[in-house]
Amino acid sequence: TTFSILNDTTKKCQVRFLTIHPASDYFGVFGYSEENGKKNVSVQDYEWEKPNAVVINNPTASQLFPDGNAVGQTIVETYQTDRIYEIVGVVDETKRFASERPEVLCFIQNRLEASSIPHAEISIRIAPSISDKIFLSAFTEDMENNLRIGNFYFLSAGSYNNKVKEQNESSGINTANRTRFYLMFFFLINVILCVIGTFWYRVNVRREEIGLRMALGSSRKNIKSLLIAEGILLLSFVTLPALLLEWQFVHAGLIETYGKGYSQAVYLPDRIFLRFLITNGITWLMMAVVIVMAIWLPARRASLLAPAEALHYE
How far apart are CA 6 and CA 59, in angstroms? Predict the structure, then answer.
């Protein structure tokens, strides 16, 4: 839905509604906090006695009230109705799943009634030291025995971790991540093998040059340092045209950050130029390590030859 400030309808933002029972501890179960994680909160910390009370999160507050405190302010729902709400609290930004970014959220109260019970979900937080499987087994057995009264019965219970996995599978996130990982691994192995093979061959065919340098007084250490420096220099020469070619893909918008959607949250990967520098810097370091590994072993073997034997290749 869409919210706007009651006295300033020019400030609007689209939010997702989450309904919670005011007598529960939704915020405590899911670890909500205030003041950038410095203060843990619970549902009971807010004045839910007001029928129009709502709690918003930081992304909502920053859009509607960028210059002031949101608590105590009045907002109006402008999408379908003109319901007026009073903000009684602001919690830190949160996200429901690891693959999503923090959303613009608004928490409203909805007390359990006969019509809302079929759609209600009950969540229980357990200690980290307790296994999900053990807890679910004991909880299921206990509830099946105790809920055989009246119109209620125990149907099922599941782990939040399993729920997240099911959500990721149904939305294709796990499949997409696996595909990206396999492709990245495949291309990385191919690049590494090509680089290793090229420099290995290049050093091996230059034994006569190595022998000549050793005969003229170069030490084994100098030979290895010279070949490694030469490989790093070649990598540096090819880096510039590679960067220019890659920037065309980035500038054209063909490389987008993951999970952005409609979220207003900004992460480091969203800073295109900085991301470009960091990722290419990491790539350059990886290639440099591969080149050093590809050169060091054949260069070491070649430098161990006696100068007279090495000159025999000439």
Answer: 18
> CA-CA distance, 52 to 116, in Å (whole number)?
18
Name the burial class of residue 279, with classes exposed (0-12), middle (13-18) and buried (19+) by CB atoms within 10 angstroms of its CB. Answer: middle
Cα(49)–Cα(69) distance, integer angstroms: 21
CA atoms within 13 Å, Cβ hemisphere of 218? 19
- 102 half-sphere exposure, CB direction, 13 A CA radius: 16
Give the position of tokens 């996130």: 173
Encoded tokens for 190: 């191919």
Tell me the residue length of the chain: 314
Which residues have C-beta within 8 Å of that of residue 242, sequence separation ≥ 6?
A: none
Q: What is the pLDDT of residues 83-98, one digit of tens each?
A: 788 888 888 887 776 6
Tokens encoding 101: 């970014």
Structure tokens at 40: 């843990």
Whole-number Cα distances in Å, 40 to 32, 58, 105, 130, 179: 6, 15, 18, 22, 38
Residue of 161, 162, 63, 146 whose CA lies nearest to 104: 63
Statement: residue 80 has pLDDT above 80 = no
Classified as helix, coil or strand, 301 is helix
Radius of gyration of the chain (CA): 31
The one-letter amino acid code at 267 reads Y
Predicted model pTM: 0.61
208-234 pLDDT, tens digit per residue, is 777 777 777 777 788 788 888 888 898
Report how far residue 311's alpha carbon sits from residue 214's, in angstroms, rounded to the nearest whole number.
9
Indicate if the pLDDT at residue 78 is higher than 80.
Answer: no
Contact criterion met (CB below 8 Å) for 294 and 201: no
Alpha-carbon span 66 to 118, nearest angstrom: 39
CA gap 242, 238 in Å, rounded: 6
Across residues 113-126, what is the average pLDDT? Answer: 76
Residue 35 half-sphere exposure, CB side, CA atoms within 13 Å? 4
